[in-house]
Amino acid sequence: MTPGRIYWPLFLLIPLFLLSWKNEQEGRIADYDNLSDYIESELDSTIMHLKDLSEKSAMDKNSDSYHKARRNYKHIEWFVESVSPKDAKYFINGPLITKYSEYAQGFMVEPHGFQVLEEQLFSDSSDVDYFIQERDLLITKLEHLKNTYSQITLDDNLFLEMCQLELFRISALNLNGYDATIEKTNISETVWCFEGLEYVLNYYFRTRSSASSLESYRSSQLCIRKSKLYLQAHPDYDSFDRLTFITEFIQPLNKDLHELHQELHLTGTSAKIPFDLNNPKMFSEGSYDPQYFSMYYSDTSGIALQAELGKILFYDPILSENNRRACSSCHKPDRAFTDGLKRAITFDEAGITDRNTPSLIDVVFSKAFFHDGRAFQLEQQASEVLRNHLEMNSSLEDIVNKLRASEEYKALFRRSFKRERDAMISSYAVLKAIVEYEKTLISFQSRFDAYLGGNKKALNKDEISGYNLFAGKALCGSCHFFPVFNGTVPPFYFESEFEVLGTPLNDKNTSPDTDRGRWDVTHLPIHDRSFKTPTVRNIELTAPYMHNGIYKNLEDVMNFYQKGGGAGLGLGIENQTLPFDSLQISKKEERQIISFLKSLTDTSGLQVQPFPLPNVDTHPEWNNRIWGGEY
Ligand code: HEC
Ligand code: HEC
To answer: Residue 357 C-alpha to ligand 1 middle, in angstroms?
Structure first.
């Protein structure tokens, strides 16, 4: 701190002075004039510590330098993972399994980075050559990043928002065992993330102070300090109370950072991101922007009217070939848009389809659709269902013609769409309207959400423990990501993940299912039997469970996870991505997880009253069609 630059009253300086004195004790980081120097210096230190990791470290299991490198990396995680998310995920701090990158036109990525080093250092055996090779790869990657960052001008306006994103990452990934999976040092590592945020804050304090922002500085600094103390006092991964930490530290800090952002008149990012960083209520419905997930995200005119029209279409069996089946035949609102059946009934009513009808609640927060992810956009998904001979057995062309026969529908389209072709009813307009309706099927009004919104009485002790188990010891949250609880990876929601659980053929748990899931789409061995991770929001209402609907209740699902999935059950699943050892949680803990899952029930959008369907004068026989479909 340069004394000459400080104009603040002395009482404000005291805590800061104590803070910097404490930093001095811990190996003080210099007060750089700009954050690029800080980032460069942290990258340098990370690299330096990695270089200290030798063959001998691997053999002696000496993790000293590893931890030092982790600390320096975690200091700038807020930056690296925001600016270079792909490098971070695939080469620096990604998961410990071979991945197929969905959003980078699909390439296979073997595990690399810190997690491989961690595995080598903390497991019984180690392959020293592999360890050194991976260490060198990580160093090369970090040097490459350093080089890249030195060639770009870092914009001061964005850093506080990156810190807000880091708070999101901490809540949804770090605390849920997304990294540090072996050592489970996530809680103490989070202290390092906060040290990084503290540095950013102090940097602004030194360089961009204004009288109006003093209160926010003070409040954020205090919150960071209290967060660190809380983390230090509760370092145990399994018993860490994530919900308390999120509500008492993460959310208030997010609010403070946002206020500071405004008071300093920072412009913020112009990039499209999935949520509104200006919304002080982090993790609430309003903090997300469903538009971000839409194929036609720039076409926003008239979307409210389009959603109203889409709602009519969704419940109108006119969309099917026989005028007897609507989307809502299988996606029933009172069952959170599922049908209660093991697998859906075919169009001819003579058989059953291959898969269980998934919920449409929060379906918008996804980057791939169907259990096997064969559609990348909701529009594409809807067009496939309409054509599918087992489902609606129609075509967009037929549907457009049928709708054009109705004066009422013509008026509805005219009022909802500006472009002449769409106002006259086009395939685009039909799909767009249905998708706009689907985008309104969002659930953030459960008791769990009320708790996040500040109502501490909304959850009981078992439900709170249940969440902490779900996010921690039971590993659920490392696939079902807080707070949407599906497999689309926060905070950028670039891709939805597919996982191999080894789901059996039936609830006897004796043989594996024959459905090869995503393999049917990609023909990649790692995708054999992999399925999209669904949300567990409203799970109480959507039994039976899994892509094949084999489990009738949540107890059966929990039992499957307890046993370590298909591989744990001995079904010979070679490529399982779910850990296959038994979960080691007690019956009581199992019940607590189920209590938490039930706290996600949100019936607010599930009571849809039947309404009259538009008339078709030229085809009076069609007017007998039944709202919601017959079967
Ligand atoms: C016959 C019952 C049935 C009908 C009718 C039906 N669906 Fe589905 N829906 C399903 C099933 C089963 C799946 C999963 C299929 C798969 O994964 O292969 C599905 C999947 C979906 C998904 C993907 C969900 C996800 O999480 O990936 C969406 C979105 C969807 N349907 C919307 C619609 C819309 C819109 C309509 C009407 C145009 C419709 N469905 C009509 C049964 C039905
Ligand atoms: C490795 C990633 C992974 C982990 C860990 C995981 N899940 Fe899942 N979960 C999935 C996938 C993928 C599916 C869909 C499987 C299928 O359809 O066969 C799923 C399905 C479910 C379902 C049924 C959803 C439905 O709509 O049918 C529930 C409930 C569930 N998980 C809860 C949990 C709980 C509780 C835990 C922790 C004990 C957990 N999951 C751990 C990936 C995971």
So the answer is: 6
